[in-house]
Amino acid sequence: MLEDLFKIVKTRLNDDDVKVDNKVDIEIPEGLLFKCPRCSYVLFVEEFDKYNRVCPECNYHSRLTAKERLDITIDKGSFIEYDKNMTSKNPIDFPGYDKKIASLMKDTGLNDAIITGECTIRGYRTVIAIMDSRFMMASMGSVVGEKITRAFEQATEKGLPVVIFAASGGARMQEGIVSLMQMAKTSGAVAKHSEAGLLYIPVLTDPTTGGVTASFASLGDIILAEPKVLIGFAGRRVIEGTIREKLPDDFQTAEFMLENGFIDSIIERKKMRRALASLLKLHLAPNERVVKR
Amino acid sequence: MNELTAWERLEIIRHKNRPTVRDYIPLIFDVFVEMHGDRYYGDDNAIMGGIATLSGMPVTVLAQVKGRNFNENRKANFAMPHPEGYRKALRLAKQAEKFKRPVICFIDTPGAFCGIEAEERGQGEAIAKNLFEFMQLRTPIISAVLGEGGSGGALALGVCDELAMLENALYSVISPRGFASILWKDASREKEASQIMRITAEDLLKLEVAEKIIPESVGGAHTNPQFVAENITEYLLDATQRIGTKDIDLMLSNRYNKFRKIGEYQE
After folding, report:
1. What number of other Cβ atoms are within 10 A of residue A241's Cβ?
2. Which residues contact A184 (CB under 8 A, 6 or more apart)?
3. Residue B66 and residue B45: Cα distance in Å, rounded?
4. How many Å apart are CA B146 and CA B32, to the nearest integer?
5. Which CATH architecture group holds B6-225+232-257?
């Protein structure tokens, strides 16, 4: 029965004609080899980096750091960062949270799981936010919520579009109810931006789940995603626990979301910059549009 | 009652005779007419909605439904809504806006349902859309947590002008069990989790997530539902009057700021 449910998605995924050769079932030493979580293909990290961290076998688009994403997306030198120095407090005094934040700040060079700012993409001005899964799986706490809210408020004030590269494990549990409220707060900021007639494009990347899927990431005018990435609301293990069955591999992929009508288009990483630029161009304000007669 | 711990309150709200929204509705409203369906897919029994009168004033009621026995619970999917439940709630909220009546939401859910069909029909999108639309709904919204307010599934009825908590009700980002299981990889530390998560009505008042605590009878609402219903009624009359007489744009800007100000960071 489950097979039937996912038949269409499966067919689509199988189009990529995965080779069996490099599928291995071994422990991979960290930092040297990359094993694709979708097709188990293995290759040197160095080689993988050359493909912009896209699996050459199955086209799975793996995670990028916020800095890497920024570099391949925006016009060089155009980035003006917002709220760079904002850092987290510990709203429910969760034991060990401050220490964890401090150590992640050191490891990643980030202050929290998101960078926000203003930039141009092929000359088109936009507000941009990029989440970084290395920082507590880019979960949304006070800092992520506040920075996204401010990014939308800035965009609303300046009449700019917003592009968000979403990635998140969901609400940041360590901040308790305060993290849940960030869902309402960010959605409210999206609503005000939308009411002002401005464009918002979320790009869903690996993984976009939980409270982020259930708030700003699902509220775009146009929703894009990278191929094969994980997108969903509930965690896979939670659902398996509920239904007591193993879920198929292609459950909650970008392709699954497209099939079910929740995203507009799946765009490959190498085409993303161009795609965003065309969409920004199509949504220029009436007085900025160039109409040929 | 104030000195009860979160764990003791959790035991009270799990009491088998804990009154549900079905018990309260006839005690609070003069009439209640239930409405069904999201107009897209189906009708979800985990969320009920309808039009009621509160001391003669028409209001729209949206509520998560806990069952009072196994059969009721099975029918209502143990108060875990599917996307169509949230979409029904949104449809009725928009209807309330059109006919200029306040919306009253009763929250009582472990969370949105986690299952294959819920994912296929866009659980995330359904919740997100409610947050977005409720934030701009041009009519007063008052939410009250009756028992359990679980995560995004609760928040989808929780974007409001004022949030009230029954004295023993809890509201959290995840159940204490889930919290222990995710952060400590040990679900059995549920009790410990409940104590540090700051999920009681008083905690939420301090965190400025809730605005009002509605007193329960001694021992918990099951000992005297009538008394609790009177307290809820009194609060709703006061809140609808207070919020409903405000200028709508001011009300919306207050609603935005209620959530806007939540968050702890430094820069």
Report:
1. 11
2. A215, B131, B135, B155, B158, B159, B259
3. 10
4. 18
5. Alpha-Beta Complex (3.90)
Question: Does B252 contact A at CB distance below 8 Å?
Answer: no
Q: Distance between CA A210 and CA B151 in Å, rounded? A: 10
Specify the DSSP element, H or E, that contains B34. strand B32-35
Taking the CA of residue A78 and the nearest CA in chain B, the distance in Å comes to 24
What is the rounded CA–CA span in Å between residue B135 and residue A146? Answer: 17
Q: Which candidate from A90, A171, A183 shows the least CB-CB separation from B131?
A: A183
Interface predicted TM-score (ipTM): 0.97
Give contacts of B 86-115 with A, CB under 8 A. 112-115
- The structural architecture, per CATH, of the domain A2-15+62-284 is Alpha-Beta Complex (3.90)
Residue spans per domain, chain B: 6-225+232-257
Decide: helix, strand or coil at residue A144: helix
Out of A89, A180, A213, closest to residue B264 by CB: A89
d(CA B58, CA B51): 7
The 10 Å CB-count burial string (b at 16+, else e) for A146-173 is bbbbbbbebbbeeebbbbbbbbbbbbbb
Query: For every one of its 293 residues, what pLDDT tens digit does chain A have, with 9 covering 90 and above?
Result: 444 444 444 444 444 444 445 655 666 666 789 888 888 899 999 999 999 999 999 999 999 999 999 999 999 999 999 999 999 999 999 999 999 999 999 999 999 999 999 999 999 999 999 999 999 999 999 999 999 999 999 999 999 999 999 999 999 999 999 999 999 999 999 999 999 999 999 999 999 999 999 999 999 999 999 999 999 999 888 888 777 778 887 899 999 999 999 999 999 999 999 999 999 999 998 888 887 77
Which residues in A189-264 belong to E strands, given as ranges?
Answer: 200-208, 224-225
Of A86, A142, A234, the CB nearest to B114: A234
Q: What does the alpha-carbon distance between residue A116 and residue A79 come to, in Å, rounded to a whole number?
A: 9
Q: Would you say the C-alpha torsion A92, A93, A95, A101 has a positive or negative sign? A: positive
Residues 184-243 of B with CB under 8 A from A: 196-199, 203-204, 207, 209
Domain range summary for chain A, segments of one domain joined by +: 2-15+62-284, 17-58
CB contact under 8 A, A173 and B207: no
3-state secondary structure A235-248: CHHHHHHHHCCCCC
CB contacts under 8 A, B 1-30 vs A, are none
Are residues B157 and B126 in contact, defined by beta-carbon separation less than 8 angstroms?
Answer: no
A187:B159 CB<8 A: yes
Is B265's CB within 8 Å of A232's CB? Answer: no
Tell me which chain B residue has its CA closest to the CA of residue A141. B263
